[in-house]
Amino acid sequence: MSPSNPPKSDVALTHPDRLYWPDEGVTKQALAAYYAQVWRLMAPYVVNRPLALLRLPDGIKGHQRFFQKHAWKGMNAHIEEIADPQDGDGEKLLRISDFDGLVALVQSAVLEIHPWGTTTDHWERPDMITMDLDPGEYVAWTAVLSAALEVKARLEARGLAAFVKTSGGKGLHVVSPLAPKAGWAEVKDFAHSLAENMAADRPETYLATATKAKRGGHIYIDYLRNGRGNTAVAPYSTRARPGAPVSMPLDWQELNAVSGPAAFTLDNVPQRLKARPKDPWGDFFDAAVPLE
Ligand code: ATP
Ligand code: MN
Ligand code: MN
User: What range(s) does the DNA ligase D polymerase domain occupy (predicted)?
Assistant: First the structure.
């Protein structure tokens, strides 16, 4: 990526000074500027994928919060509607295909972007697996780091590559690229059994069921991001949470130095991109293999 050559968009930002993260002073215009900086890195994970969008028209301190999978009134024309081939008569889904689409999301107060794990070129064959590590309240951050390494080892043992990112919330996401071959049921079953195996081997540490009761001291290995229609927050997407955190792709080598799940924010990402111009997920799609 060349930060000195950001993409341009003709999509008009109305009220560019509107505050999306008021405590941090992050405006609509600042959000658009951030996405221009990361666009080339982010594009493969958001373009041509069905999207679920968290839209907060009055910013993160406002009362309106819509988790949106379908068009809304007055939606910008750069956000496309697309029919789900398995749901011919159903409400259309949403997609963007270029930087104008991303700016249209900013204009529409979309503060979180959650894509499906596949593109609309091959709906029924996912091109990634997302293992979402959800620590309970009393889990130390170092335990989350160990869990990510454990998931990586198990994915690699099955011949898959593994990449890691902060969630921008409470945990980490370990993501494997797939050559689009296996269907949703197979991919979800695979993710489920990986989670169950971890919980069976270390029941004092890991959980493979969403039961909240036992969560406190455990890390829930949330495999449920992998069903048809399920989503996970996109790499580089902001989160609608205090501090304006983003879901940040990392190098495995730097993981131990990362202070927490929300360590990267709109405030410090520009600095990071300058200091580490190499894309930590640069090989993501080249590393894709079919799930066997
Ligand atoms: P954390 O690290 O805090 O777990 P996360 O991104 O892993 O962050 P959530 O933000 O809790 O987890 O979201 C998990 C998934 O649930 C999202 O990827 C999204 O698909 C779905 N989701 C999030 N918010 C909503 C909502 N308001 N309604 C329905 N589904 C949602
Ligand atoms: Mn999570
Ligand atoms: Mn989860």
Answer: 27-281
